């Protein structure tokens, strides 16, 4: 008997899915990004029990044609990329064609959608990656996708999920970032029937920040607008009054994508050196633009990590520009008042 065997397709599918979808928040991120890529200007996200019971996303985007719905759920099926060179000038958040396949492999999915080019819509259901039914359905606009019982067929992962409140908090964070990077889209985020936030979709970043964190928080921010070839920076950074005990409001986007990047995160804190209070972290909602050829967005299936060519140079430029902005701020606050 051979010691080495091929894995069964269903096992391969679950392993691959586990790289893209690690918790309910990953489903929300992937599906919301799809809704954005579909050109929606209104997106509503409803979750139940921290997303463990259900995640439902409704958009008013371009929809999917009846005879392409099943294809959309096949692994490596995408309308967004056709050759590797396209990665250098992507205009969409998705490109791997893996999200829908991954989500469907480990949950129960119902999708209703109507393509802008068709008269009738459709409703299709999937369970553990298999299509269980499809029918034609009158439907008014966009796509409504509902994901139930996440990880029902992957017990180890199911056990791994946190309390409802914790998963809800992570989804809240993900939704906040998505809303910040798309002020032109009106987002509604609802958890167990309770509205968590709504953004107006008026195209102003200020409106989104106020909806998420309140007006007084916004008042403590300073506008950032800097250029240092090949990098551009836009957004807001905080003064001493807005410092926080966690880094939860240090939010960085590179070319419109929300990313985690250790080098830049460290550079941001360093820029405040001399102004920082003990155990406090500065806040910043920063949009960085770099030429596409300097980035590798395909570092990880989740697309949260981003590879930067000449990372250390970019770190230095970033620190310089933030430092300059910090020094221009009115930091003559009487510290004794704040402590
Ligand atoms: P990717 O986003 O990387 O292309 P996905 O698996 O997330 O891969 O989606 C597969 C395809 O399904 C997309 O390329 C798109 O054509 C279509 N699609 C997914 N979600 C939506 C949506 N909400 N509205 C319209 N089309 C969608
Ligand atoms: Mg996608």
TrEMBL record:
Keywords: DNA damage, DNA repair, Endonuclease, Hydrolase, Nuclease. Residues 209-327 form the DNA mismatch repair protein S5 domain. It comes from the Bacteria. GO terms for molecular function: ATP binding; ATP hydrolysis activity; ATP-dependent DNA damage sensor activity; endonuclease activity; mismatched DNA binding. GO terms for cellular component: mismatch repair complex. The keyword Nuclease applies. GO terms for biological process: mismatch repair. This protein is involved in the repair of mismatches in DNA. It is required for dam-dependent methyl-directed DNA mismatch repair. May act as a 'molecular matchmaker', a protein that promotes the formation of a stable complex between two or more DNA-binding proteins in an ATP-dependent manner without itself being part of a final effector complex. Belongs to the DNA mismatch repair MutL/HexB family. This is DNA mismatch repair protein MutL. The chain holds residues 1 to 339 of 629 of the full protein.
